[in-house]
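Late entry, written up from scratch paper. The run itself happened at the end of the previous shift, but nothing got recorded in the book at the time, so transcribing now.
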Amino acid sequence: MLYLGEINDAQYRAWCKTIEVVEGAAGKTSQMAIFPEDRIAPPMPCEVAQVRVKDMRLVRLRQWGACWLALELWEQLELDRFWAPRLMPSREGTRWLAA
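Output as recorded:
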């Protein structure tokens, strides 16, 4: 979850979106909107969670942008087609490009 700070009315309307929440081992999903605790959420067609922003902290940060970019470039450049005839299976039989 990321809090972006103060926004104007136009940005507020654009950010009034929902997130998909996955619950439990069964993977049941539902939609939920999140808003800061000190703001009144507009009427939403789903549950609304009020977030105590002042009590939030970042732990175990993960970088994801570089991984996303690498996968996006891989697909756009069709590198699987380039590497398929060049990457032979390993001695253990690993197929490197297997999905």
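The chain has three helices and three strands.
(Scratch paper discarded after transcription.)
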